[in-house]
Each structure stands twice: as C-alpha cells, then as structure tokens.
Amino acid sequence: MNILITGPPGIGKTTILKQIERKIQDQGHAIGGMYCPEIRENGRRTGFNIIDIASGQKGILASIHNTTGPMVGRYKVSLNDIQEIGIYSLENAMETSDYVLIDEIAPMELKSSNFSQTVWRVMESEKLVIAVIHQRSNHPFILKVKSRKDVMIFCLTRENRDNVLENIMESLGL
Predict the structure, then answer these.
(1) Mean predicted confidence (pLDDT) in 136-156
(2) What beta strand segments (E) does 10-141 contain?
(3) Which residues are annotated as a binding site?
(4) What is the pLDDT of residue 162?
(5) Stretch 126-142: mean pLDDT, rounded?
(6) So where are the chain's domains?
(7) Which of 15, 40, 61, 100 could be cross-linked to 50 through a Cys-Cys bond (beta carbons 3.0 to 4.6 Å apart)?
C-alpha cells in the first residue's frame, strides 16, 4: 500500500508527514526517505532544501540563487542534489527502512527523470510509502502515481486536517 497526501499549498501536508514519522518511530520502526523544507531569507522563500531523513545529509533542491539547472517558477533546480541526496535517500530507504517518506513528488523533483524512476521503484517495492504529492499538477508522472490501484489519497482541507492523521494511522494499522 502507498499513501499519498495532497492539498493546497500551506495546508499542512509536510506537518502531517512529520507527525506520521514521529508516531511510526515511537513504535520502533525504521524510517527513510526525504524532506524538502523551504529556505527562507528575511521572511521570504528563496528556495528549498533536500534532506535525507536517515542520514541528515542536506542539499539544495532549488533556489533563486542557483546559477544552473532547469527552472521551475523563479527557482533553478539542482539536479545534482536530487541525485546525490534525494534519489540516494530513497534507494537507501528501500534497503534499510520499514517505511519510506517522500516530501514531495512535485514538478521540481520531477525535473530529474531518475527521481521519477526511483519513486516508481519504491512504490513497487514491499515498503510502505507515505508521500506528499502535488495537488494541481497535470505532470504525466504525478497523474500516473495518483492513478495506481495500490494508493490511498488523503486530500487535506482546513475542515479535515485534524482527522487526517488519525485516518492515515488507522490505514497503516498503527
């Protein structure tokens, strides 16, 4: 089973993912995967980090300060850090973790075709995947992931976000 969390920007998708991570770890399970938190400078978002959950290794997913890489909005994406941190974290999680967390499957990460191939392999594996996925994107890979028969999609709203954590934990049998 694969669980996807979606919803509008700023609704709390990553917050829910971190709460799930804590609850799973509290039960003694190993977790791997990646997070992509915002980088803020003087109160303004200037990019996104990419962090390996297991090792803590950190890089730049995308930034307004990057001088090379494909553009997504006003950010240039670091394909090297997606490869060396993001993809590595997912491959490592397949080998060593009980659960794989992905924050997130979205246009920036998908600038790397290796990333989408790795995400698909992880979702095909025996590992339980819990991923944040872009809500409105029509990217073919995002649509393909959302249409998998082995996914449960939880769409966060202001009205349901307090109940979604409990529903996901129930779905995981935890």
Answers:
(1) 95
(2) 31-35, 38-41, 44-52, 58-63, 71-72, 75-77, 99-105, 128-133
(3) 7-14
(4) 81
(5) 93
(6) 2-167
(7) 61
